[in-house]
Amino acid sequence: MTAPSLTSTAPATSGQLATFRLDGDLYGIEVEHVQEVLRSQQLTRVPLAPTAVAGLINLRGQVVTAIELRERLGRPPRPEGTDPVVIVVRLHGEAVSMLVDSIADVVDVQAGDFEAPPDTLEGPARELIRGAYKLHGQLLLALDVQKAVSA
Amino acid sequence: MVIAVLRSEGRRFGLVVDRVINTEEIVVKAVGGQMKAIGLYSGATVLGDGTVALILDVQALARRALRAETNERQDSQKAAAHAAAASETERQRMLLAAIGGGRRVAIPLDTVTRLEQVRTESVEKVGNREVVQYRGAILPIVRLDRHLGAYGETDREVLEVIVYADHGRSVAIVVEEILDIVDGEAAVRSDIDDLGLLGSAVLGDKVTELLDVRAAILAADPQFYSGHPTALHSSSTPTGVSDSLLEV
Questions:
Q1: Which of A67, A132, B15, B23 has the smallest number of Cβ neighbours within 10 A?
Q2: Interface A:B, Cβ pairs < 8 A
Q3: Which reaction does it catalyse (chain B) (predicted)?
């Protein structure tokens, strides 16, 4: 049940999540934040940037920062020879992109299926995961997209 | 090895690069907050082939690279002259400029906004005043040689200009040549001065005149300080400038 004290950004909400895979796990972000999804793009590296900044991409003439979500979540680097997928999100009018392994479906989630982050979740990911929705047979980890891209 | 020589905030420094590819007219694109936070890039641009190129913030780069050097020197200085550390004023850097007739003038670097070159033919007139168009504004000019009674060359094609700006007003101080930037720490100082000066000091082994910046600015723009009377008040005594320069 939704606690009445929770704000509108509280985790346990129903709605649609755009989901993607990262290091074998399923993650989701609110579908309204997603601007577009692109195949792997040429990255311009940025010296002295935080390690999670993979580089800059050219999005139809607009320069957009790309955040490596594996790095952000403390996961091992993507295996050699596999290209990331770029999810472009728009937050406060600014486009930022996240590199993930592969894109999956848009999923309807119910507040009743929501649980706080599992205790087994440790490290940097704990800050960035709002909680998990129990889907049939697997967990959908709800990513706090705002925190995830503020590397 | 290729070295790109840059000038930032009155100081020249070299940037060791692998290779110079091209010079290009570019459009600066905004970058996200993460990029700005690094403090080394002023933006990015998209090149003709679609790749993204970073644009270095030269001033920030210079400050970052040169600060370490300055700190080292300040540390050794502090150790040597600990007893004499009566003043807490930061050591002031001075821009040395030739004004003609073999005369050298020192100007506190913190009053310098930019160094520019202006073609003599672009100098225009407002009454008896010389002005130049600069960044969408009319910039009054003071020629330091005339202001200080020196005899500079008159047939130069390009004027070396020190731009000073404060509270949204700017003036251009014309010198003959920018010579150097030195620490404003003079072993020998004197109150021997002349019109438009605050005294003299030995800087870089030579007797150097200390410019009364305020008087020079007022010669170019009598209204310069009238917009903010507090500044007028606090610096109305010329010693306000020279004292902080010449602490030894």
A1: B23
A2: 54
A3: ATP + protein L-histidine = ADP + protein N-phospho-L-histidine
Instruction: Return the residue of A nearest to B53 by Cα.
Output: A44
Strands (E) in chain B, as ranges, are 2-8, 11-17, 41-46, 52-56, 93-100, 103-108, 114-119, 124-126, 129-134, 137-143, 158-166, 169-175, 177-183, 189-190, 197-203, 206-211
B28 interface with A at CB cutoff 8 Å: no
Q: Give the model's pLDDT for residue B247.
A: 27
- CB contact A42 to B (< 8 Å): yes
Percent pLDDT > 90 in chain A is 55
Q: Which residues of chain B neighbour A150 with C-beta distances below 8 Å?
A: 33-34
Q: Do B52 and A56 touch (CB under 8 A)?
A: yes
Mean pLDDT of chain A: 87
Instruction: Please report the pLDDT score of residue B1 as a whole number.
Output: 75
Q: For residue B78, is pLDDT > 70?
A: no
pLDDT tens string B35-62: 888 888 888 988 878 889 999 888 888 8
Token digits of residue A62: 């607009």
Asked if B52 reaches chain A (Cβ–Cβ under 8 Å), the answer is yes
Q: Test A56 with B54 for CB contact under 8 angstroms.
A: yes
pTM here is 0.52
Hey, which residues does A86 pair with through a beta bridge?
A: A38, A99
How confident is residue A12, by pLDDT bands cut at 50, 70 and 90?
A: low
Q: Is the Cβ of B248 closer than 8 Å to some Cβ of chain A?
A: no
Q: Is A86 on the interface with B (CB under 8 A)?
A: no
Contact B52 A49 (CB under 8 A): no
**Which structural domains are found in chain B, ordered by start?**
2-87 (2.30.30.40), 94-247 (2.40.50.180)
Of the pLDDT bands very low, low, confident and very high (cuts 50, 70, 90), residue B116 is confident
> Token pair of A85, please?
């997928």
The percentage of chain A sitting over the pLDDT mark of 70, rounded to a whole number, equals 91
